[in-house]
Amino acid sequence: QTNGHPNLPKPAGKPEVIEDRLFINGEFVPSKSGKKFNVINPTTEKLSASVYEADAEDVDIAVQAAKAAFPAWSELNALQRAHFLERWASALEKALPEISYLDAISMGKPAYPDQLAMMIPMIVRYLASKALDVLGESSLNTANFVNLSLRQPYGVCGAITPWNAPSMFLAYKVSAALITGNTIVLKSSEKAPLSPLVAARCAKEAGIPPGVVNIISGFGKPCGEAIARHMDIRKISFTGSAATGRAIQKASAESNLKSVSLELGGKSPLIIFEDADLSKAIPAAAMSIVMNTGQVCNASSRVYVYASIAEEFLEGLKATMALMGKSGDPLAEGTFRGPQADKLQFDRVMAYLDLAKQSGVNIALGGEREGSTGYFIAPTILSNVPEDSRLTKEEIFGPVLIVNTFEEEGDVLEKANASEYGLYASVFTKDISRALRVAKRLEAGSVAVNSTSPTMALDMPFGGWKGSGEGREFSSFALDDWTELKSVYLAI
Ligand code: NAD
């Protein structure tokens, strides 16, 4: 919730040098194989950069560096570690214009304003503020013993991130690992490896000791898989699709049973009751699916609107989505809507639009590619889509909103919950009892009342029920995911 923040960064111009190497043991190094891969600008379809590609050998070198750095790092006290995070946050804050520029030319996120980038230093500072919150407990339960439970770091953690907010997930995972005394090897997404390398440079500028943070670029295979299977990595934190989450869970089970936390996808329902304030519900629904061109894990992508107000809602929604303007160059001031992140992502969304056309679904708005260069897709509304259609069931991860109707609370709850996912849900009503009753019955990790995603707060736990994941991020609860618990029995 950074709307109106006075310091929204402006994108920098093209940096003199775009970092293309891996960040291992405090240094930027080429990959051992010398292999590189291309990052294509989704607006121009031209080459933005080529970066070194890590494979299993590079992963192992990074893990050994993180292992060597662990004893000294974990023995610092938490406030000392917080100090390093504070310095990292300041370096990141200065680098935000560069980060915004690099995200724009790699995955198309509008750079001006870049509200997601604003979150990066805020997240790091929030985690730094949690330094003293990682507590065990003591028990006087037995006369002859004092018992203690201790929270201790795992050691070397692995992290794998997606491309839709490249350095934001990185900021969380690295800060959470570090504040709890772990060291980390993080693989960024092959679609957006550029800004994570700026975050790496900032870690170096902040004086974080070599080996504590290692950031490498590469593909799911072999690099991500090598992290998931590495015997010296004790915990892995993953954000990405459900299919990859399953693969990581399996790789962990087949290697050393590392602790796995998963932040996966969603198909989040938005329920609009007959007493909803449509002047708030309509812009909230539109914003949720158009922001970051629908490439948001908790986007409210399935609307259930009360039948008697459906027409009014739909007409208002169409007008509002149209008002959100034509798509444009993510580097231009005021562009709110950029392209899909890359060709693969574009083709994926277009395949869903083809399916909509073939199956005779009502396309109330959009449904087409925009322009002929760049991976732009018009904001799309599909209405009255069968509940068992793949369009209603699967995460499209584009600016495509399903709008269906209902007439009864029990029925809409059943439909909303009939999903393999459970990341986020929203409800609009003025009836407080109904709001809380429905919030309680929705199967989701977060429920927004009279609001939609991206509403979330750093001090509230974020994560999924069901197929949307395992574990939580943000809030004090989430730090538990980064520590092992140990019971110590002391005879007195
Ligand atoms: P993805 O699963 O394709 O890729 C995510 C990361 O996993 C990338 O770095 C990729 O290289 C890596 N990867 C791919 N195969 C792998 C394997 N076999 N082993 C190890 N790593 C592997 O997802 P994506 O397309 O980058 O991101 C979009 C997805 O992420 C959507 O489903 C979205 O909902 C989800 N997401 C979830 C959250 C959340 O907090 N719940 C946030 C953002 C995105």
From TrEMBL:
It is an enzyme of class 1 (oxidoreductase). It catalyses: an aldehyde + NAD(+) + H2O = a carboxylate + NADH + 2 H(+). Residues 28-488 form the Aldehyde dehydrogenase domain. One of its GO terms (molecular function) is aldehyde dehydrogenase (NAD+) activity. Keywords: Oxidoreductase. Belongs to the aldehyde dehydrogenase family. This is aldehyde dehydrogenase (NAD(+)). It comes from Clohesyomyces aquaticus. The lineage of its organism: Eukaryota, Fungi, Dikarya, Ascomycota, Pezizomycotina.
